[in-house]
Amino acid sequence: MAILEDPLRLVIGDKAAKPLEKALELRAVGDLMRHYPRRYETRGELTDLASLTDGEYVTVQAEVAKVTSRPMRNRRGSIFEATVTDGHGMLVLTFFGRGRQDWRERQLTPGVLGLFSGQVSTFRGKRQLAHPEYELLDAGEDAAHAAAEYAAEMIPVYPAAKEITSWQIARSVRVVLDVLDVEDPMPRAIRDRHGLCGLADALRGIHRPVDWADVQRSRHRLKWDEAFLLQVVLAQRRLAAAAYSATPRPRTPGGLLDAYDARLPFELTVGQQLAGAQIADELALDHAMHRLLQGEVGSGKTVIAVRAMLQVVDGGGQAALLAPTEVLAQQHYRSITEQLGPLGQAGELGGAETATRVALLTGSLGAAARRRALLEAASGTAGIVIGTHALLEEQVQFADLGLVVIDEQHRFGVEQRDALRAKAGEGRPHLLVMTATPIPRTVAMTVFGDLEMSTLTELPAGRSPIATHVVPAAEKPHYLERTWERVREEAGRGRQCYVVCPRIGDGPGSVSGPDTEDAGQADTAQDDAEQAGGGRPPIAVLDLADDLERGALAGLRVAVLHGRLPPDEKDSVMLAFAAGSVDVLVTTTVVEVGVDVPNATVMVIMDADRFGVSQLHQLRGRVGRGRHEGLCLLVTEAEAGGKSRQRLDAVAATLDGFKLSRLDLEQRREGDVLGAAQAGRRSSLKLLTLLQDEDLIGDARKEAQHLVEADPALAGQPTLATAVRVLLEREQAEYLEKA
Fold it and tell me: Helix 256-263 and helix 301-314: axis angle, to 10°?
């Protein structure tokens, strides 16, 4: 008997196992069992030989009339042909083999009756089936009954590859199923409560179903396995996190936080007050906070993060803010030091008596500035340290790290999160994760299932509405002309504009992506983009900026910003734009998150169909941040009525990021949503879909929570404990690490 952990080669032999491993990375019995059919076919009704037409897939019942065998002319091997008849017509069955096919000659002898399935073609004027499937009927067998069964049998069609066909995979699956011995990891009580079949029945039912009801019953159980195992892992993580000790940092009356609140020029929204109170209460506890703060674009998450950091500084600790790009890290540094004013100027003339310092640490700092930032972090002089991945480097040390804030969680993995938290020494720092991309509930329950959640839905007072319009440049070129006229009008009123392009330009591999500070962008993104645009490369920053300066926007102050610029130049461009010295910023998506210029009122997105829904929503959020209304123009050459245009129309129709996040999830591959690191790797979610199976995921989460609370180590569920261990050891757990 075989178990799921056994190597495939021990069960099906080396010859069959090697192509499965090479082409599909299927190494263990469990890998093959989780390689589910993508669809099922039936052979269909019996077809009269006289009515066959080329190209159709048929099943015929016929008798072998004659057979011939001959060697191939130009290479080794043989061709075996059997001519069959049903009394009305004739059909040739053709089989090619590398050697002699004596065994087939012994099977298909004249007078034998059989059922034959395949695709009809014509060769030299004769109708034929090349390499048909067949089943021979015994002379005394009820031919009509056997034919009906054969025609109705469900044939699984598997995701295959050049090196291995679906039917070869099916043959290996049949071998495994015949010897498989499966222990069910799902507790019997849970199976009974939710009407789930056993695991062995589910695996048989999905690979060798009797009927469609069998398929549905099996799929439902296997979806439960995916959801339940994942939720058990997350429940154990939540329990383990709650057990980590942390230094309590209760709010200190009369400290920096009170002084900061007094400086704020606006009232916090109700949502900000509630989220702030939750975080303040958890920072005061002696175990580590693990909280995700999500909200609409521009909902004021940074203010909540600053308040949390100041509460920790008041309590004698330090806070680290990890940002995904240098542009965003510098933006945070500028805005936080500006908000703090004298409260962030310890040791400087004019600094407040209780002031702290804010340090910036990025990979591009000069040696002297880097030494100063490292010293301020290690000595505790800097209460707040802001940086990029440079904060994760071994030489970066803190005097007393009490809080880690991670901005744009989807850009960082669990291991990076842990690397920064490890710098706290004894105990664990509190953790606050922020995401500016609204998350559907089911994604929150899976990708971020080890974090508690706070959600901001209101926009702060003073935010202006944003109007969004699709500009169909190919159908109506004058609309594009009007776009540039509108940009000139806004600049004439003293306001500023962004123009975002999907590519930097000046060479291949310069497509803008979610992390545009990587100078080497994926060539595949450009390939995809060119296919989408009928061969035209995506519009590039460098090309468009030059065209606009010499044409439609001549006379305006135009600057460019992209990931290939030197860091100091990027910073000076952003400073100039923030100061109002630049009218139009032609840029890649480096401005997607965190950039805050209240005077910017227009966002023009070129080739908007090349961006995802969430990305468009993020970019749109860069305008309308002051007292003037925002305008977002989605320029596209996508055809009206097509999927790309429908996506743009949906973005133009609503400012509700939570609605758009569901649309985004519907339109993208599951792995993309679960994490960019999924590309090219197997996901543990083979059958589960995060939107359609929302209720199932919720039920699995509750069951997992109850089970883990009662038995954290799963001592009473050894089979489940093994399944969890295997999940964590395999690449299947990868999206948890790279969420």
Answer: 150
Predicted confidence at residue 592, as pLDDT, reads: 64
Can you tell me whether residue 141 is helix, strand or coil?
coil
* Gap between the Cα atoms of 249 and 267, Å rounded: 24
CA–CA distance, 675 with 738 (Å, rounded to integer): 6
Helix (H, G, I), strand (E, B) or coil at 679: coil
- Within 8 A by CB and 6+ apart from 308, the residues are 276, 279, 280, 283, 319, 403, 405, 430, 432
CA distance 739 to 728: 15
Would you say the C-alpha torsion 562, 566, 569, 570 has a positive or negative sign? positive
Render pLDDT for 35-44 as a digit per residue (tens, 0 to 9).
999 888 776 6
* Predicted pLDDT of residue 520: 31
Q: Give the angle 218-220-225 at the CA atoms, nearest 5°.
A: 95
Residue spans of alpha helices (H) in 533-681:
541-550, 567-578, 613-620, 643-653, 657-667, 670-674
Six-digit token string for 327:
């542009």
452 and 294 Cβ atoms separated by less than 8 Å: no
Kindly report the backbone phi and psi dihedral angles of residue 244, in degrees, each rounded to the nearest multiple of 5, phi listed first.
Answer: -70, 130
Residue 349: which residues within 8 A CB-CB, separation 6 or more? none
Calculated CA dihedral for residues 215, 221, 227, 228, nearest 10 degrees: -170
User: Cα–Cα distance between 587 and 565 in angstroms, integer?
Assistant: 11
225 or 505, which is more confident: 225
Give me the pLDDT at residue 201, please: 96
Residue 340's identity, in one-letter code, is L
Residue 470, strand partner residues: 634
Longest dimension (CA), the chain: 106
What does the chain come to in residues?
Answer: 739
* Structure tokens given for 88: 């009305």
Structure-token match 């999500």, residue found: 294
Summarize pLDDT for 507-549 with one digit per residue, the tens: 544 544 433 343 333 323 333 333 344 568 899 999 999 999 9
Q: How far apart are CA 479 and CA 473, in angstroms?
A: 6
- What is the CA angle 463-467-468, rounded to 5? 130
Q: For 119, phi and psi rounded to 5 degrees? A: -100, 130
List phi, psi (to 5°) of 50.
-75, -15
Q: Give the span between the Cα atoms of 551 and 484, in whole angstroms.
A: 10
**Rounded to an integer, what distance in angstroms lies between the CA atom of residue 551 and that of residue 556?**
10
Find tokens 């842990």 and name the residue.
418
- Tens digits of per-residue pLDDT, 60-102? 888 899 999 988 887 888 899 999 998 888 999 999 887 778 8
CB-CB neighbours of 333 under 10 Å = 22
CA atoms within 13 A on the CB side of 673: 26
Question: Which residues share a beta bridge with 722?
Answer: none
Contact status, residue 589 vs residue 472, Cβ threshold 8 Å: no
